[in-house]
Amino acid sequence: MGKLKVYGIGNILIDIVSHADDQDLENLGLDKGIMKLVEGEERDRIVEFISSNDSTYCCGGSAPNTIITLAQLGINTALSGKIGRDHFGERYEKQLAQHGVTSFLTSDDGNTGSSIILVSPDSERTMNTSLENNQNYCVNDIQEESIREADYLYFTGYMWDTDSQKEALFKAISIAEEAGTQIVFDAADPFAIKRNAGEFCRLIEEHFDIVLANAEEARLMFGNDDLSECINRLADLCKIAVVKNGAEGSVVKSGNEYYDIPVYKVDAIDTTGAGDIYAGGFLYGICSGLGLEESGHIASKLAAGIVGQMGAQFTMGRLAEIKKSF
C-alpha cells in the first residue's frame, strides 16, 4: 500500500443497531431517545437483550470513522486502540480490515467498547455507550515506528479521559514531533474541551499543527462568544485552523489564508458522525496535496453526504458517487 499517511488513535466502539419497542425499553430501564453511558450489569442486560435480535454491527468511534473514511478514499491509514478478547473485538478487527485500514488494535481481558443503538418503531434512537477497554489504552499500546513513518498523527478530544490515555497521547505526540510527523487534533468533544480548555490551548500552541473544532468547542476553548475572534485566536496558535458552524458552513484559516466553506444542502436523515467525516474529507485533501480551500469543499461535500443517510460510514458505491464531485 506504500507509505503510511495517517496514524490514528481513538476510542474503539462497535456500533450495534437493534430494534426495541417501548415495552422492551421499559423492561431494560432505559429512557427512550436518550444517549447514556452504561457499564457493568446494565450493559450486560442490554447485550443479552440484543443477542436474540437481528442486529447490525459496524465499526464506530469518532477517530475510527475519520480513519475509515480516509481508507475508503484511498489513503493509507492505520488505527491504534484497545479492544477486548471478545466477539465484538473480533467483529471490529474483521470489518476494519475490510475497509482497508491497517489494524494496530491491542487487546486484553475486559470488553470491547460499544454503542448499542435501540431503534423504536417510531424511529427514535436510544443510545447506550460503554467505553470499557478504551479507558485502559496506555503507552504500551502505541506503535512508535509507525508514528515515525506516518505523515500525520490524528486523534480527538474523546481520548482525553483517563490518565493512561493521556500518558499514551503525550508519548505519541513526543514521537511525532521528533520524527517530523504532523499532529492533527479534532476537538470532537465539547465536554472534554470544557474540562481542559487551558491545557488544550497550551498543547495547540506548543505541539499541534492542524486543529479542527466546531463552533461550540471553539467558544469553550477561549471562553468567548465571538466566533470570529475564536477562529482568529485558534489560527494564531496552530498552522491550520478549521472551525465548523453547522448550517452556516465552515471556515479554514492559515496565516493570511481565509476561506469560507459553504454547506452543501441535503435532506438531513442522520447527523451522526458528520464531524468525523468532515475531518476525513479535509485530511484527504491535505494528504492528496490539494489546497486548503479545495480540501474544505471536499470535507463539506462528504459531511453533507453522510448526513443524507443512516449511519456514519459510506458504502463504496455511495462514496464513489460523491467523489465524482471532487
Automatic annotation (TrEMBL):
InterPro entries: Carb_kinase_PfkB-like (IPR052700), Carboh/pur_kinase_PfkB_CS (IPR002173), PfkB_dom (IPR011611), Ribokinase-like (IPR029056). SUPFAM superfamilies: Ribokinase-like (SSF53613). Keywords: Kinase, Transferase. Residues 56-314 form the Carbohydrate kinase PfkB domain. GO terms for molecular function: kinase activity. It comes from the Bacteria. The keyword Ribosomal protein does not apply. Pfam families: PfkB. PROSITE patterns: PFKB_KINASES_2. Belongs to the carbohydrate kinase PfkB family. This is Adenosine kinase.
